[in-house]
Automatic annotation (TrEMBL):
UniProt keywords, alphabetically: Cell membrane, Hydrolase, Membrane, Metal-binding, Metalloprotease, Protease, Transmembrane, Transmembrane helix, Zinc
GO biological process, one term: proteolysis
GO MF assignments: peptidase activity
Protein name as it appears in the record: Site-2 protease family protein
Organism listed in the record: Streptomyces violascens
Localization in the cell: Cell membrane
Cofactor(s) the record lists: Zn(2+)
Residues annotated as transmembrane: 12-32, 90-115, 127-150, 162-182, 203-220
Topology versus the membrane: Multi-pass membrane protein
InterPro entries in the cross-refs: Metallopeptidase_M50B (IPR052348), Rip2-like (IPR044537)
Protein family according to the UniProt entry: Belongs to the peptidase M50B family.
Length: 267
């Protein structure tokens, strides 16, 4: 009986997560109705809280897939409660991604849940555990852009539309970065089970630095330009214009003189 109760507790949605969802809902309502005295601050709260929700869902997807793959320890670790405070690296998983969104509007992936890979059998299961996170970002991007590609924008306030466009941009950048086959990122986790033992051993020392290396490369103007050209091409395919995303970013960054990573292709 105690075990059953413990298992239910391990999977109960955290009040912390529900609080974040509440902030997203209230701020989203404020953006929609123009109730807030500061349009930018309302957009900032809405996009930031929605971004944190997507980060929690990203990590939940990893944990849930791992549970079905054989790692029954994820429940006891609190990963199924959607509580970001339970993550292995809360700084990398929540704080840094939010900071980089504030600095310039890029969806920075982070490492959070510790999966006991030894409990998971089968290469396909290992790949699915890694793929589950970025696929959640893809799904989030599709949901955010649904009014655009469904041509259902009539009646949607401009500020809310632009906020959704910027949030979709964050999800697309997060998905693209996560899918890169770089040690330490989910893309490498997808292909790692299919690599030889020697190749995995050679790549292992680089895992802690993979994300830093990718982010450093994004500061190279030519790479930055090509990366965001791809981002905007995907958004365009989903019906979101460059203007909507850029306007959403401008509303989000309502404070002056903060250094930012350019969101527009650099010519």
């Amino acid at each position: 009986m105690a075990t059953t109760t413990s298992r239910h507790h391990d999977r109960r949605i955290s009040p912390v997560f529900l609080g974040i969802v509440a902030v997203m809902a209230v701020s989203g309502w404020a953006v929609w109705t123009s109730y807030a005295s500061s349009r930018g601050f309302a957009v900032f709260l809405f996009v930031t809280s929605a971004w944190v929700v997507s980060l929690c869902l990203h990590e939940y997807a990893h944990a849930r897939t791992a549970l079905h793959g054989g790692d029954i320890t994820v429940g006891a670790k609190g990963y199924l409660t959607l509580n970001p405070l339970k993550y292995t690296h809360a700084l990398l998983s929540i704080v840094l991604p939010v900071i980089f969104v504030i600095m310039g509007g890029i969806g920075l992936p982070g490492g959070a849940v510790f999966i006991e890979r030894g409990r998971i059998r089968g290469r396909w299961k290992h790949s699915l555990v890694s793929a589950a996170g970025p696929l959640t970002n893809v799904l989030f991007a599709i949901v955010c852009t649904a009014p655009f590609w469904l041509h259902a924008l009539d009646g949607v306030p401009a500020d809310f539309r632009n906020a959704l466009a910027f949030l979709a941009l964050l999800q697309v950048t997060a998905a693209l970065l996560n899918f890169l086959p770089v040690p330490g990122l989910d893309g490498y986790g997808i292909i790692e089970p299919w690599l030889s033992h020697s190749a995995r051993r050679q790549a292992e020392p680089f895992a802690p630095f993979g994300l830093l290396a990718v982010f450093a490369l994004l500061w190279v103007p030519e790479i930055n330009q090509e990366f965001f050209r791809l981002v905007y091409a995907i958004l365009d395919g989903l019906g979101v214009s460059d203007l909507d995303a850029a306007t959403g970013r401008s509303l989000y960054q309502f404070w002056p003189d903060l250094p930012s990573l350019s969101l527009t292709p650099q010519g």
